[in-house]
Design brief:
CATH topology of the largest domain: Penicillin V Acylase, Chain A
CATH superfamily of the largest domain: Penicillin V Acylase, Chain A
Radius of gyration: 23 Å
Structural class: alpha+beta
Number of strands: 21
Largest sheet: 7 strands, antiparallel
Strand order of the largest sheet: 18-14-1-2-19-20-21
CATH class of the largest domain: Alpha Beta
Distance between the termini: 39 Å
Length: about 525
């Protein structure tokens, strides 16, 4: 009876906090010159709805027979399966039969990552001249078509070009294909017009649901890949626009920038240190922080939670403002590529299920061969065993009163993330050393490590949810909610202890699955010994 009652309560909460919008994601890129640790960061929020269950899974390497096809269940888009499909991870919708996979973010076994998409749309004239193709490539397909087939980011871009030339696009999209050497930013404008740009190390970008790429140099094949007639097509169809004397792709092909998109570009650039006027006639896609201050992975986490605090453009002051941090987030993620990572390791994925404002970013490497069981629970509706619903349910309740309910939840997850980030440099060294000895055992180790962290965080989410529901039910206090688990971090602050070291570094062992499991015992904040 108790479980049934909780499910009914959560169903009601989800209905209240769910606002479906296909055009609602925000992407971020931070080149290695501008990160505090020299990593390259690619990130995005998936803002479709607060009631949109997701999974996190590993697709094993698979062989296909000649003639077998990938098929989009909604549009009829098809593409031949490769004879060998590479292993890859993804974060698909739980209900893939409803409207397709929507794999969103993942790595393959060759260290390639696809982050797709930030939806966008071309202007009416552009669409009339080159309409979208009903059974063309769309967001739901991109991760699951590209990752099993490519060994580098550039191969991925070339595959996208081949598909668009052959099949066309069903919708406008912005997405990235990356590896440790290159990050490609791609805009698909119309049915057959597109442009891709290799992002330099000294660039930073925040992009909402509108095209922003400016000049496209069709003679620079090293940095640009685009439709051969991108500029001429624009001229022929009366959409050609220049800015500062040069062709501007976004001004030519995009819809006029909406208020919600302007809100997020302005907020994101200012948050990351680049002062820009809200009413700027044109926003540059790429910028650099004015003060020269480097950007950390924690900064990007906070950007994805940002609700314009400290400005006049908060949702509380103006309900029409569209902030980067939103209850619409089904998940949010940050990918880090680091120089020391072998290509086959891929990168580090920090991901939160549900709205990141009251959820937690958990790390996993690109070479994992499995995920925690709770990530794989296929529950479209509330299910206490599902990772998505564990984190989303806690967020939904916390959002009902940010001051009284949410502040304590956010403070705990903030400390939890800080502990994980502080530990990551040591974990990186262990994993890199183990990769040099045995890649299969390294994958077993990183898999167990990620599962240990995820399971621990989920146990904390369950506890906080239970305590918060009890706190609300009592309704007899003017004191804000403080989760009991917060005491473990407060105790650490009062002591001289530091983040606990891994008991036995994998590189110093034979690295069997058993020793890897032992080594992960202290790798994540645990109930008994979490540290900051």
């Amino acid at each position: 009876m108790k479980k049934k009652t909780t499910a009914m309560v959560m169903a009601s909460l989800m209905a209240l906090t769910s606002i479906t919008s296909a055009f609602a994601c925000t992407g971020t890129i931070v080149g290695s010159d501008w990160t505090d640790d020299g990593s390259t960061i690619v990130a995005r929020t998936e803002d479709i709805s607060g009631n949109h269950a997701k999974n996190y899974i590993v697709h094993p390497r698979t062989t296909y027979k000649a003639g077998e096809m990938f098929k989009d269940v909604s549009t009829g888009f098809t593409y031949p399966q490769p004879s060998v499909a590479y292993q890859y991870t993804s974060v698909p919708d739980t209900d893939i039969q409803a409207d397709g996979y929507y794999g969103e973010i993942g790595f393959n076994e060759y260290g390639v990552s696809v982050d797709a998409t930030v939806s966008a749309s071309a202007n009416e004239k552009a669409q009339a001249a080159d309409p979208y193709v009903e059974d063309g490539l769309r967001e739901a397909d991109i991760v699951d078509v590209i990752l099993p087939r490519v060994k580098s980011a550039r191969e991925g871009v070339n595959l996208v070009v081949d598909i668009l030339n052959e099949k066309g696009a069903a919708e406008g999209n912005i997405f990235t294909i990356s590896d440790k050497d290159e990050v490609w930013y791609i805009e698909i404008y119309t049915g057959h017009r597109f442009a891709a740009y290799k992002v330099p190390d000294n660039a930073v970008a925040v992009f909402p649901n509108c095209f922003m790429l400016g000049y496209v140099d069709l003679n620079n094949a090293e940095s640009y890949v685009a439709s051969k007639d991108l500029i001429e097509f624009a001229k022929q169809n009366g959409i050609y626009q220049e800015y500062n004397g040069k062709f501007h792709a976004a001004l030519s092909y995009s819809e006029p920038i909406s208020g919600g998109n302007r809100d997020r570009v302005w907020a994101g650039q200012n948050f990351l240190g680049h002062a820009v006027d809200y009413d700027a006639p044109v926003f540059d896609l790429f910028f650099t922080p004015d003060d020269g201050e480097k950007i950390s992975v924690k900064d990007v986490m906070e950007l994805q939670r940002y609700r314009n605090e400290g400005t006049e453009k908060t949702p509380e002051k103006d309900s029409s403002v569209r902030t980067i941090g939103t209850e619409r987030s089904a998940e949010a993620h940050i990918v880090q590529f680091k120089d020391e990572y072998p290509k086959e390791l891929g990168g580090l994925l920090w991901m939160t299920m549900g709205n990141p404002e009251h959820s937690v970013y958990l790390p996993s490497f690109g070479n994992i061969n499995d995920t925690a069981d709770a990530y794989q629970v296929e529950a479209i509706d509330y299910d206490a065993d599902s990772a998505y619903w564990k984190f989303r349910s806690l967020s939904a309740v916390a959002e009902l009163n940010r001051e009284m309910y949410g502040a304590g939840v956010r403070a705990y997850w903030d400390a939890y993330e800080d502990a994980l980030i502080a530990k990551q440099e040591q974990v990186d060294a262990e994993v890199v050393a183990l990769m040099a000895k045995n890649e299969d055992k390294a994958a077993d180790y990183t898999t167990e490590l990620a599962e240990t962290i995820a399971n621990d965080a989920m146990s904390k989410a369950d506890l906080m949810f239970s305590e918060l529901m009890g706190y609300i039910a009592k309704n007899k206090t003017t004191d804000a909610f403080v989760p009991s688990v917060m005491a473990e971090f407060e105790a650490k602050e009062e002591s001289t202890e530091t983040v606990p070291a891994t008991e036995v570094a994998p590189a110093e062992t034979t690295a069997t699955t058993e020793t890897a499991a032992e080594a992960t015992t202290e790798a994540a904040p645990a109930t008994e010994a979490a540290a900051k």
